[in-house]
């Protein structure tokens, strides 16, 4: 969908054109209006305009001057000139400025629609050229390494997509892994301090490390790697021809190659690394648990030792005591509340309690673990808003702050969903209050600064982006910001006209217009009479 800007210093003509055509059917999602060239330039700063329709003769910045400015800064915008001047020199100048079409006023709706449809077709062709398949294919191939790393990083964190989505991603990223494939995991810790080393040098070193591992493993294994949050390099490997040998033989071969990687890194890169290697696990379901187990091996068995190699050969029961994986899977409760994704937080809470219910050993420790984590997220949200628990939860706050290790699953579930619902309700009321307060501040500023007010000055005053202010003002008041400013200026001008000692040109400047003739034109369009006629009738 495209956006169009209509510019004319005759406000009724702008409004008429804005309501004249079937914009949505033409593929235009937003119609913006400006009543001067200067206002048009301001709107262009904050909206992705595709087509500009402007009068050629306007008070202040002319249409040709506007198009020239647009051509310098927004080269992709298609421009159409509307004018009542059927003179060759205008057409010549318009062509020099890169005008796409030149229409005489009054222009028929059918003619304007035909012209705009042609420009939209041109824009679509330009877009197709911009994203041609060959270029996209090249860019995608260039991005594949990062896409693969990102997917493995998500799997390590427990963010496992639905099976069909994962299969599609694996196929798209050309990763030869399938559901329930037996895999081995390697976790590598670099035993060097790179504090003070520039990012480029560290990135080159990491590339060299992974390249050595790829070169050594790739003849017999598929290998897939990423870097985790602790700057460890994590590798997932599986045999290319699993039927050639037994799992025991493949594991022995993987260990031999892993030790060779460690040796070659020291020989060629002159740095020491420690490695831990997992037992066989099932892809992708067991990947997060295996990863967290390898992290534990670093702390429990290797510690501060360097150049270590540890192979975890333990057969692990999937129901052994371990953390609730869903609690810590990304995005966490805290991350979801940070951006107020209430529905996603509720879905995550459902998954947490499903995991609690599935465990054969539903220990009180796991219930307490869930309580502490959820409570921590609630605390973060409440305090981030500058509030205390009493402000949101009232009398229930005392119960929330009493750590009760004796809770069972059902009372915890009821408390969690109820408390989340209260936070969501508070957020909604806070948003309403914020918007109302913001609109009041905008209205007050416009009335106080009517002489110099602009969308940018209002945005600066409330410390928000101009596009957000403009869209919010329209949504909350039903009126475009520029229309509201015009109305305030005209109302102010009418009040000033009642003061006998003020001249028309003084009043024009007081309400923000440097050119009295432009002010007179706007006033007459707005009230149906000139300022002088109004003043004479008092």
From TrEMBL:
A Gene Ontology term for the protein's cellular component: cytoplasm
Name under which the protein is recorded: Response regulator
GO biological process, one term: phosphorelay signal transduction system
Modified residues (4-aspartylphosphate): 55
Localization, UniProt: Cytoplasm
Limits of the HTH araC/xylS-type domain: 440-537
Transit peptide in keyword set: no
Stored PANTHER family: HISTIDINE KINASE-RELATED, TRANSCRIPTIONAL REGULATORY PROTEIN HPTR
Any one Gene Ontology molecular-function term assigned to this protein's record: sequence-specific DNA binding
Record bears the keyword Transmembrane: no
Occurrences of domain Response regulatory (ranges): 3-120
This protein's UniProt keywords: Cytoplasm, DNA-binding, Phosphoprotein, Transcription, Transcription regulation, Two-component regulatory system
Alphabetized CDD domains for the sequence: REC_YesN-like
């Amino acid at each position: 969908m495209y956006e169009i800007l209509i510019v004319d210093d005759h406000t009724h003509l702008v409004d008429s054109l804005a309501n004249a055509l079937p914009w949505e059917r033409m593929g235009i999602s937003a119609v913006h209006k400006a009543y001067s060239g200067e206002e048009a330039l301001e709107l262009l700063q904050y909206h992705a305009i595709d087509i500009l329709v402007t009068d050629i003769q306007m008070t202040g910045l002319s249409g040709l001057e506007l198009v020239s400015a647009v051509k310098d800064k927004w080269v992709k915008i298609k421009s159409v000139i509307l004018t009542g001047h059927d003179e060759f020199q205008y057409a010549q100048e318009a062509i020099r400025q890169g005008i796409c079409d030149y229409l005489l006023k009054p222009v028929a709706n059918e003619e304007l629609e035909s012209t705009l449809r042609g420009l939209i077709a041109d824009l679509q062709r330009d877009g197709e050229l911009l994203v041609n398949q060959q270029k996209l294919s090249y860019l995608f191939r260039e991005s594949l390494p990062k896409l693969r790393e990102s997917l493995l990083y998500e799997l390590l964190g427990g963010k496992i997509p639905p099976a069909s989505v994962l299969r599609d991603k694996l196929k798209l990223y050309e990763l030869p892994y399938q559901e329930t494939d037996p895999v081995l995991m390697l976790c590598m810790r670099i035993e060097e301090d790179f504090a003070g080393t520039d990012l480029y040098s560290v990135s080159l070193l990491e590339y060299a490390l992974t390249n050595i591992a790829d070169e050594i493993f790739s003849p017999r294994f598929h290998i897939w790697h990423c870097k985790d949050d602790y700057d460890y390099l994590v590798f997932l490997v599986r045999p290319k021809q699993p039927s050639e040998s037994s799992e025991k033989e493949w594991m022995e071969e993987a260990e031999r190659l892993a030790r060779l990687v460690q040796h070659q890194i020291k020989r060629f890169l002159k740095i020491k690394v420690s490695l831990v290697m997992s037992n066989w696990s099932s892809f992708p379901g067991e990947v997060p648990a295996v990863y967290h187990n390898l992290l534990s091996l670093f702390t429990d068995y290797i510690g501060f030792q360097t150049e270590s190699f540890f192979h975890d050969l333990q057969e692990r029961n999937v129901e052994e005591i371990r953390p609730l994986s869903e609690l810590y899977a990304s995005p966490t409760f805290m991350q979801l509340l940070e951006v107020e994704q209430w529905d996603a937080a509720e879905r995550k809470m459902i998954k947490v309690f499903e995991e609690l219910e599935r465990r054969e050993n539903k220990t009180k420790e796991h219930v307490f673990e869930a309580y502490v984590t959820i409570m921590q997220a609630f605390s973060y949200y409440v305090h981030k808003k500058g509030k205390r628990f009493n402000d949101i939860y009232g009398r229930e706050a005392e119960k929330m702050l009493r750590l009760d290790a004796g809770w069972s699953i059902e009372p915890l579930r009821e408390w969690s969903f109820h408390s989340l619902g209260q936070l969501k309700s508070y957020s909604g009321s806070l948003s309403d209050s914020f918007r109302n307060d913001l609109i009041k501040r905008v209205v007050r500023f416009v009335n106080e600064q009517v002489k110099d007010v602009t969308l940018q000055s209002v945005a600066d005053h409330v410390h928000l982006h101009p596009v957000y202010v403009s869209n919010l003002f329209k949504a909350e008041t039903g009126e475009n910001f520029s229309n509201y400013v015009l109305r305030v200026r005209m109302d102010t001008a009418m009040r000033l006209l009642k003061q006998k000692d003020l001249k028309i040109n003084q009043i024009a400047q007081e309400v923000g217009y440097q050119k009295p003739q432009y002010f007179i034109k706007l006033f007459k369009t707005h009230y149906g009479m000139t300022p002088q006629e109004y003043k004479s009738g008092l």
